[in-house]
Every structure is written in structure tokens, then in C-alpha cells.
Specification:
CATH architecture: 2-Layer Sandwich
Number of domains: 1
Oligomer: single chain
CATH superfamily: Transposase IS200-like
Structural class: alpha+beta
Radius of gyration: 17 Å
CATH class: Alpha Beta
Length: 191
């Protein structure tokens, strides 16, 4: 994952990847999929579009079409990470995951502790790619949807079977657990 980079845009469609600190499967441990969906809901209320996603045990891949709200995309995603982190910490506390909470607390640098940060939930930066054409968008959608079936994960046999993904919608035409906007329809939207 690259170091902290500023996205020099305030609008457009982006492939965003957010990873839990040190690749720990925090989302799975706390069954925090609903927390990610709440962030998606918030983005939609601000006028943005969720075009595709997969929520994995320790990371999120999402295609978001951002409208120009006057806020930087870095700030929007950073605020989302912060919101999700607070909710995830509450869930870890509720589940009495004291060992994990202590570990995540011990990872906070002195400088961040001075700014009231208590736990490291996410890796510092997030990865992003601007999506300018349909070939690249389709490549990213395929990557997102294949993620649960590939590599070490083996969470399902076929993308359509993974519950926390937009694959069901794109492969069947029926919305799955979370409603997304078809990326092919984004062409008609003015940013």
C-alpha cells in the first residue's frame, strides 16, 4: 500500500481499498459488515454513488462515484474510516475482545495519542485508483467480485455466493444485501 497520497480530485469514480490494521480480520471478528453498510448509507445521503463493493474479513474494496461536495475525497474517505473505527471499537468492547483492544491500543504512536487517538483500526493510508473508462471499471468490478474466491480466502465457490458483495446484482440483475448503482448508468450522471 502506498504512503499517504492526496487525491487531487473532488469528483469522479474511484476504486478504493481500505485495509484493517496489520491485516487483522477485525471486520469478521466483530461481524462488522453492517458498520461498512452504514458508511455506504452516509455516502449515499451526501449524493455519492456506491457502484460495486466487497467487504472482506480484513479489508474493503469499493467503487464509489463521488459528486463534488466541496470536500476532498481524502477527507470523505478519512471521515468514513474514523466513523467506522469508532463503531468497531465499541463492538470490540461489547464483545470483550480485551486482548485485541490492548494490541490495537499499543500500536498508536505517542504523537497520535497526544491527539486523542486510542486504537489503530485501519492502516494509515488507503489505496485508490481513478476509473476513467469502462474497461478499467469492469476490470476492477471483476477483481472485487472474485476476491472472496481467490487466493487465501476461499470464502465461496462462485462470486455470486458471497453475501457481502455486489456480485449478486451484477451477475443476476437482482439487488443483493446492499443496493448499488449500476456502473453503466453512471455515464448519465453529472458530477
Amino acid at each position: 500500500m502506498p504512503g499517504r497520497q492526496n487525491i487531487p480530485f473532488t469528483e469522479g469514480t474511484f476504486f478504493i481499498t481500505i485495509v484493517c490494521y496489520n491485516h487483522i480480520s477485525i471486520i469478521e471478528i466483530i461481524e462488522g459488515y453492517d458498520i461498512v453498510y452504514k458508511w455506504f448509507d452516509y455516502l449515499k445521503k451526501q449524493g455519492h454513488y456506491i457502484n460495486g463493493y466487497v467487504i472482506m474479513p480484513n479489508h474493503i474494496h469499493v467503487l464509489i462515484s463521488f459528486i463534488n461536495t466541496g470536500h476532498s475525497i481524502n477527507k470523505i474517505v478519512g471521515n468514513g474510516k474514523r466513523f467506522m473505527a469508532y463503531e468497531m471499537i465499541k463492538r470490540l468492547q461489547f464483545l470483550k475482545q480485551d486482548v485485541l483492544l490492548k494490541y490495537l491500543s499499543d500500536q498508536v504512536s505517542d504523537k497520535k495519542t497526544e491527539r486523542n487517538k486510542r486504537h489503530e483500526i485501519w492502516n494509515l493510508s488507503f489505496d485508490w485508483k481513478e476509473c476513467r473508462d469502462y474497461k478499467f471499471l469492469n476490470q476492477k468490478l471483476e477483481y472485487i467480485h472474485d476476491n472472496p474466491c481467490k487466493g487465501k480466502w476461499d470464502l465461496c465457490k462462485a462470486p455470486v455466493d458471497y453475501r457481502h458483495s455486489s456480485a449478486y446484482y451484477y451477475l443476476t440483475g437482482n439487488q443483493g444485501v446492499y443496493e448499488v448503482n449500476n456502473i453503466l448508468e453512471i455515464n448519465d450522471i453529472e458530477f
